[in-house]
């Protein structure tokens, strides 16, 4: 892939993808997130623990398209869609639990910014945030920030060794509580492009293109499908 073309594309605009998980939908957070990403956020932002610099940078963000998908139903393959975002966990103990927990209705926000990709990722990561977590002694181990800090109940804190030493029953009862964390953000352009390829049809892409946003170019650049292997 032409790295110069990637750099040129990034200078023009950067994209992000925020996904609201089933627990966020059940809490009615779609309008909250939509308002935050649409600039109607002055009052809401006051309730979120986010650095002021990040709040200011939210003004550069616009929603390209928001869309609902129930990935537990055809034509979607839930494991294929979820694996785009969580394939780093393949073969790990939590992977099948994550696949089961997130298999259902999801809300996607495709976002565009005139800032760099790094800056946009920083904004979305801060907006996603972290929930309050305390250890068995009541000590705060994770300070609440962002959406997770504002809308999730406090969680118990377990280090890696504690999780590793749990029996299968203990683990299967504990981990679902920890991973019901409302929101995910795609980690890379390749993840976003692959997800858009699997979730948007030609009409969706055309509607975006008609607004002057070259989304097909972006998908083709970061998720090329027709790679020919030449025999030497």
Descriptive overview:
By secondary structure, the chain is α+β, with helices and mostly antiparallel strands. The chain has one domain (about 5-130, about 185-220): 2-Layer Sandwich (Alpha-Beta Plaits). The protein is about 50% helix and about 15% strand. The longest helix has 12 residues, at about 115-130.
Q: Tags for this entry?
A:
Alpha-Beta Plaits, 49% helix, 232 residues, alpha+beta, 16% strand
Topology:
Elements lengths: L2 H10 L1 E7 L1 H5 L3 H9 L3 H5 L5 H6 L3 E10 L7 H9 L8 H7 L3 E9 L3 H12 L4 E2 L5 E3 L3 H6 L3 E2 L3 H5 L3 H12 L3 E3 L3 H11 L2 H8 L5 H8 L10
Parallel strand pairs: 4-6
Antiparallel strand pairs: 1-3, 1-7, 2-3, 4-5
Helix pairs in contact: 12-14
Distance between the termini: 20 Å
The helix content, as a percent range, equals 40-55%
Low-confidence stretches: 227-232
The name of the CATH superfamily reads: Nucleoside diphosphate kinase-like domain
Spatial ordering of strands, largest sheet: 2-3-1-7
Oligomer: single chain
Q: Assign the CATH architecture.
A: 2-Layer Sandwich
Number of helices: 14
Give the domain tally.
Answer: 1
- The chain-level structural class is alpha+beta
Sheet of most strands: 4 strands, antiparallel
Strand count: 7
Question: How would you spell out the order of helices and strands?
Answer: HEHHHHEHHEHEEHEHHEHHH
Task: State the shape.
Answer: globular
Q: How large, in whole angstroms, is the Cα Rg?
A: 19 Å
CATH topology: Alpha-Beta Plaits
Short structural summary:
With 232 residues, this protein is of the alpha+beta class.
